[in-house]
């Protein structure tokens, strides 16, 4: 198995896509077009349209997926289950370069994974064009994870995702650096993420665990740490994917000019609170 594991993307989930997308545009993100998803319910089944669609904030390193149910009559790929818990972040994806090798590793570790899950979607907002460009992914989700959709992702068409016009944001965001997960069973959640990625854990100074990656990290914290690292944020349920942390290329100058008093200082950066950012705190590192 070659390559390294990186923080690829987070996924915010909602039933009201237009409201979420408008909120992120107001926060200074350039979003990709609205695109409908399709995939296989099982590795042995054909590709079918899914209920879901997204827009993304593509960064130089990683991205944010803003995912919504667009057609409730179709297969929701568990999004309806996630939203029954709370509206917010339910997806945490780690980038890999060899899904087959990781599948073999996970099976050796005793995980019952039926195979590689495939997902695809158009990238130009023209979902009805059969000849249009389609981004394709190979996914390895951690089975039955109570934290949400924790998965390894191999991008089969990265050139269609990271297109230059989508990488420039008025708020000057350039990288996804960190995700904060709060869990009453922090040790169990941390062990699951370590098993999924094949990486070792470290102690976190806030009292939980940290999972360092080749690019980025995940902090897995107990509930009592939430008020310390994200003052004022309340977990709607546990486990709770509480925050994603971004970096800008101008020291947050454009962000301060754009949002001003809406930003709250938190340890290590400036926070847009969950109620203004789709249900998860959006922190810009200092």
Layout of helices and strands, plus pairs?
Blueprint: E1 6-14, H1 17-26, E2 35-39, E3 48-58, E4 63-69, H2 79-85, E5 88-96, H3 99-108, E6 117-122, E7 134-141, E8 149-155, H4 158-161, E9 173-182, H5 186-197, E10 202-203, E11 209-212, E12 217-221, H6 226-229, E13 240-248, H7 253-259, E14 264-266, E15 269-272, E16 281-285
Parallel strand pairs: 1-4, 5-8, 9-12, 13-16
Antiparallel strand pairs: 1-5, 2-3, 2-6, 3-4, 6-7, 7-8, 9-13, 10-11, 11-12, 14-15, 15-16
Which features would summarize this protein structure in a list?
286 residues; alpha+beta; 2,3-Dihydroxybiphenyl 1,2-Dioxygenase, domain 1; 8-stranded mixed sheet; 16 strands
* Number of structural units classed as domains: 2
Multimeric state:
single chain
> Which fold name is given in CATH as the topology of the largest domain?
2,3-Dihydroxybiphenyl 1,2-Dioxygenase, domain 1
CATH architecture of the largest domain: Roll
The Cα radius of gyration reads: 18 Å
What is the ordering of alpha helices and beta strands?
EHEEEHEHEEEHEHEEEHEHEEE
Helix content: 10-25%
Mean pLDDT: 94
Counting DSSP H or I runs of 4 or more residues, the number of helices is 7
Q: What is the strand content? A: 35-45%
Distance between the termini: 35 Å
Given the helix and strand composition, which structural class is it?
A: alpha+beta
Q: What features would you describe in this structure?
A:
The chain is an alpha+beta fold and 286 residues long. The protein folds into two domains: 6-165, 2,3-Dihydroxybiphenyl 1,2-Dioxygenase, domain 1, CATH 3.10.180.10; 167-285, 2,3-Dihydroxybiphenyl 1,2-Dioxygenase, domain 1, CATH 3.10.180. 19% of the residues lie in helices and 36% in strands. The chain is built from seven helices and 16 strands. The chain has helices at 17-26, 79-85, 99-108, 158-161, 186-197, 226-229, 253-259, and strands at residues 6-14, 35-39, 48-58, 63-69, 88-96, 117-122, 134-141, 149-155, 173-182, 202-203, 209-212, 217-221, 240-248, 264-266, 269-272, 281-285. It has an eight-stranded mixed β-barrel with strand order 1-4-3-2-6-7-8-5, surrounded by four helices. A hairpin with a 5-residue loop joins strand 10 and strand 11. It is globular, with a radius of gyration of 18 Å. The two termini are 35 Å apart.
